[in-house]
Amino acid sequence: MNYITITKENIEKEHICCAISNNKDIQVSSKKAWLYDRLDEGLVFTKSEQRGKCFIEYIPAENAWIPIIAEGYMYIDCLWVSGSLKGHGYANELLEQCISDSRAKEKKGLCILSSAKKKPFLADPKFLAYKGFTVCDESDNGIQLWYLPFMEGTKPSFKDCAKHPHTEEKGYVLYYTSQCPFNAKYIPILEAVARENHVPFNAIHLQTKEEAQNAPTPVTTYALFHDGIYLTNEELSDKKFLKLIGK
Question: Domains in the chain, please, with CATH?
Answer without folding.
Answer: 3-161 (3.40.630.30), 163-244 (3.40.30.120)
